[in-house]
Amino acid sequence: MDLKKFFALPAEQKHRSYIIQTVLLCFVLYGYRASRVEMLRLDIDLFSMFVLLIYHYVIPFAGVVYGLVLLFLGIRAIWSRQPNGLLVSILVIGTLFAWFLPEPPMREEIKFFFYRSRYEAFIEQARPRYLAGDRICSKMVYEKYRDLSLKCPYAMSNSVEFTIYPGTFSLAYSFDKKKPEAPYCIWNGDVWKQIDENWYICKRLSD
User: Fold this and answer.
1) CA dihedral in degrees (15, 32, 103, 151; nearest 10)?
2) Which pTM does this prediction carry?
3) What is the 3-state secondary structure (H, E, C) of 109-178?
4) What are the residue boundaries of the structural domains of the chain, listed by start?
5) pLDDT tens-place string over residues 7-59
6) Lowest CB count within 10 Å: 13, 76, 175, 195, which one?
């Protein structure tokens, strides 16, 4: 078998269109994964429920069905008089990339990346209060860091929690490198991901 011809771009226009559709399908699959966090931020109202219905059921179902159709067309191209495996190869490799490629960073991670030194400066000012057992938010300290959190961060148990954006997620710092015991991290939610040795993203439980 001539592998160069087997993986060459098909001469027929319709087969080329199938390849383009396969590439687009892989982009849609990655977009589906990449938008997962933003879907979780939606407030529950009638429009949001409609969007979530499409996101959770319509898009996956349509994607699977169309992927199977393209797979069938790709297999048929392999067994044709002029065998061509480009479509199946792109479908398999593209699907693997779309599924295993890391998701883009969250909004909280991006802001933390750009303002990490200021977040850490706040933590250093909060540390003595934590060690002294004082859990009350210092308004005086917060005034200097108001752009870092919508609410005044409180030193609670072993952590400090920042509400960077309204809604579902928060940024939390753990003083002892253990799971933070902030509200969104343990009482009314759970840790979503750990982004550094002491830093976590936490997700509130659904209302």
Assistant:
1) 160
2) 0.77
3) HHHHHHCHHHHHHHHHHHHHHHHCCCCCCCHHHHHCCHHHCCCCCCEECCEEEECCCCCCEEEEEECCCC
4) 3-100, 107-204
5) 888 888 888 999 999 999 999 999 999 988 888 887 766 777 788 888 888 98
6) 13
